[in-house]
Amino acid sequence: MVYLLVVGLTMLVLPLASIAVEFDISNAPMAWLIGKLFVFWSVGARLFLAGARQYVQPAFTSRDIMGIESPEVYGLVRELGGANIASGVLGLASIVMPNFVLPTAIGAGIFLAVAGVEHVRTAHRGRHETIAMISDFFVAAVLIGFALGTFFF
Question: What gap in Å lies between CA 57 and CA 118, rounded to an integer?
């Protein structure tokens, strides 16, 4: 239940609430606010928290998300955790370093799209992996849409 709550908050609730608040108090374009606040919450907060959990508690990712019971994969899960922590730090830093927003959106958008595809390819997908797949695709679409919008509009 905690997993679903964290994903729901960082994928949708907190970014949308932050966009609404900041839209009322700033003159920033809506597209910029979407990119900035999804990068902060969905990449910064979510991937940092996921990475920390993967590093400290690799069994959750391997067993509960990927359906792999073997502790032999913990090293690989910890490496994934390190990559998620690195992306998360960039996302968190983007709130005070606006020039981090676009590169972080591009990198994390690609990463989450690939992760979503890998979740689709899994035959044993359970509840947690389905949640991960949906959230990965949703956030990837927002981030890639934002990035493409900055190039074409």
Answer: 21
